[in-house]
Design goal:
Elements: H1 3-29, H2 38-43, H3 49-111, H4 113-220, H5 227-254, E1 263-265, H6 267-282, E2 286-291, E3 299-301, H7 303-321, E4 326-337, E5 346-355, H8 362-367, H9 385-395, E6 399-404, E7 410-417, H10 421-426, H11 438-442, E8 447-451, H12 455-468, E9 471-475, H13 478-486, E10 493-497, H14 506-516, E11 521-526, H15 530-533, E12 542-545, H16 550-563
Parallel strand pairs: 2-4, 8-9, 8-10, 10-11, 11-12
Antiparallel strand pairs: 1-3, 4-5, 5-7, 6-7
Length: 571
């Protein structure tokens, strides 16, 4: 039974109890029920007979009615008592049921309290875990947002950095291009200045040489010259020609376009032999000191050009130490050097030539290797000595540097790359001295084919050979020379220029002759040729440098004959 039903029951019981108590009070007091106006009629009985009788009858009727009502009220009261008893019983039953339900509810409540506590604890723990999970989730979300933000910033930063780098790179490229353009313009200006200086120096020296030749030939044409006078003029012309030859040789050495004849040799032995010859050139006031490494590696270079380079350095040192004198030192050694702009990394043989002179200023050092640059007084030097040293070192596969300071002397250091055993074997000096008399002994009866497109030079060359005893034939180019040989004409040697018109040059002709006519000696002559400067052709081909004297030509022909395949005879 619900709470509202119990409350309603209690209210009905209370109302019945109140009505019962009121009925009992009236019964005990004997008061008739209130029927309206009865009390006033009884009091009025004594007032008159007729009227009184009527009133008495009415009162009795009212009394009888009151008693009937009283009996009915008692019956109702009894019924109310019974109903009240029933209600009380019902109320007791309801109370007992309620108390039983309450007791059961309390028992159920008591039985589930521990579970409720456990559930509450579990719920609290779950809530805590939930809160922790939510915190972790929140932290994770915050971290993810921070990471996303960082990634965004990183992407933005990378993009900004790439943009900045790209922008800066373009700017640097522009700056570099502008700098290269400026440097190229500067180099071009310096190059033009150097060319002007070079051509001016060449013109000056060659004009002096040509003046000697022109003057000598003019005087030789005069009649009545004594033999002594004629000999003096010829010596002057020959000396002028030697000066011109030396001048062009130095220019070619600086340009690294001279025709070298490299040989493998011991640098210490070559320098020791030169020391005796250097003393007269240096003078008695200069002392020569040497410091040669005992385990020096061999080098491959042109021995004659090496001697010229050392002599040029000795002359420069002598002029620097004039007039007080000093010490001229030649030192050799082995070294393993790192790569620089001027040389490759590797093993090198070092040749250091130094003096105890006043040294060079930085400005002088920056121009020291330029052709015709000199600090000497006019007429005291050509300015080509160090230029020849520079060109010789570079063309020999090495480099050269200057170490100097004002007041501390000057050292010129040449580096020659250490050759391999195979290179040493290939560049070993030829020992053909046993064949030296061959040309002079066999000149008569041998035919030389001279190949040159310069008719004047070819005529003079033919005259020189004919005076020696050779029979001479001439061809204007390589094609004509091969036609002569194909026709079966007797030819023992071919003496050819390198630069010629036609389908073949002198080098091509030499290679063809070595294949088709291996028994024919071949000699090439050139004043300058890029082809020969870079040529690695057959070793049997001899090269003669212009200008040459008659004895140079005879010796070169001798070497050419010695190089041909033995056992063959001329065709």
């Amino acid at each position: 039974m619900g709470t509202d039903s119990r409350e309603a029951l209690r209210a009905r019981i209370a109302a019945l109890e109140a009505a019962l108590e009121a009925a009992e009070r009236r019964h005990r007091s004997g008061d008739p029920p209130d029927v309206g106006g009865g009390t006033g009629a009884a009091a009025a009985l004594p007032s008159g007979a007729g009227a009184g009788r009527t009133d008495l009858q009415e009162s009795e009727a009212a009394l009888a009615s009151s008693r009937a009502e009283t009996k009915a009220g008692q019956a109702d009261l009894l019924a109310s008592v019974v109903a009240l008893s029933s209600l009380r019983a019902e109320s007791e039953a309801v109370n007992l049921a309620s108390e039983a339900a309450l007791a059961s509810s309390r028992a159920e409540t008591k039985l589930t309290l521990d579970d409720l506590v456990a559930s509450a604890v579990a719920l609290a723990l779950a809530q805590e875990e939930t809160r922790a999970g939510q915190n972790d989730l929140l932290a994770s979300e915050v971290a993810n947002k921070a990471l996303a933000l960082a990634n965004g910033l990183l992407v933005t930063s990378e993009a900004a950095l790439e943009s900045l780098v790209d922008k800066r790179t373009r700017a640097l490229l522009r700056e570099m291009a502008e700098r290269r353009l400026a440097q190229e313009s500067l180099r071009q200006g310096e190059k033009l200045q150097a060319i002007g200086h070079l051509t001016g120096g060449i013109a000056h020296d060659f004009n002096n040489i040509l003046q000697v030749i022109f003057s000598g030939t003019s005087l030789l044409r005069r009649s009545g010259l004594t033999e002594e006078r004629r000999s003096t003029l010829l010596d002057s012309i020959e000396h002028a020609a030697s000066r011109a030859s030396d001048l062009t040789g130095r220019l070619l050495a600086f340009a690294r376009r001279q025709v070298l004849q490299p040989r493998a040799f011991d640098l210490n032995l070559r320098l020791a032999d030169m020391s005796v010859l250097l003393q007269p050139a240096l003078g008695s006031h200069i002392k020569i000191e040497t410091d040669f490494a005992p385990d020096l590696w061999p080098i491959i270079a042109d021995p004659s050009q090496l001697e010229v380079a050392v002599l040029n350095l000795a002359v420069n040192a002598r002029d620097a130490m004039m007039p007080e004198g000093g010490v001229f030192t030649i030192r050799t050694g082995n070294a393993t050097l790192a790569k620089t702009l001027e040389r490759e990394a590797g093993d090198y043989v070092c040749l250091t030539v130094s003096d105890s002179g006043p040294g060079m200023s930085p400005d002088v050092m920056s121009h020291a290797f330029e052709p015709f640059y000199t600090t000497k007084a006019p007429g005291k030097g050509t300015g080509l000595g160090l230029a020849q040293v520079y060109g010789f070192a570079k063309q020999s596969g090495g480099d050269v540097s200057i170490e100097s300071a004002q007041g501390n002397g000057t050292a010129i250091v040449l580096h020659f790359m250490r050759p391999t055993e195979a290179a040493i074997a290939a560049a070993a000096p030829r020992t053909d001295d046993a064949h030296a008399p061959r040309v002079a002994r066999q000149a008569a009866g041998h035919t030389i084919l001279v190949v040159d497109d310069d008719m004047d030079l070819a005529g003079l060359t033919a005259s020189m050979l004919e005076d020696t005893g050779y029979t001479v034939m001439r061809a204007a180019n390589a094609d004509d020379a091969l036609a002569v040989l194909s026709a079966g004409d007797k030819v023992d040697a071919v003496f050819s220029d390198v630069i010629m018109p036609g389908t073949m040059n002198g080098v091509d002709l030499a290679v063809t002759l070595r294949v088709r006519y291996p028994h024919v000696a071949v000699l090439l002559a050139t004043g300058y040729s890029q082809l020969l400067a870079e040529w690695n052709g057959p070793t049997e081909v001899e090269v003669l440098k212009k200008p040459y004297r008659l004895n140079d030509l005879v010796a070169a022909l001798d070497r050419s004959f010695s190089a041909v395949t033995p056992g063959h005879t001329a065709c």
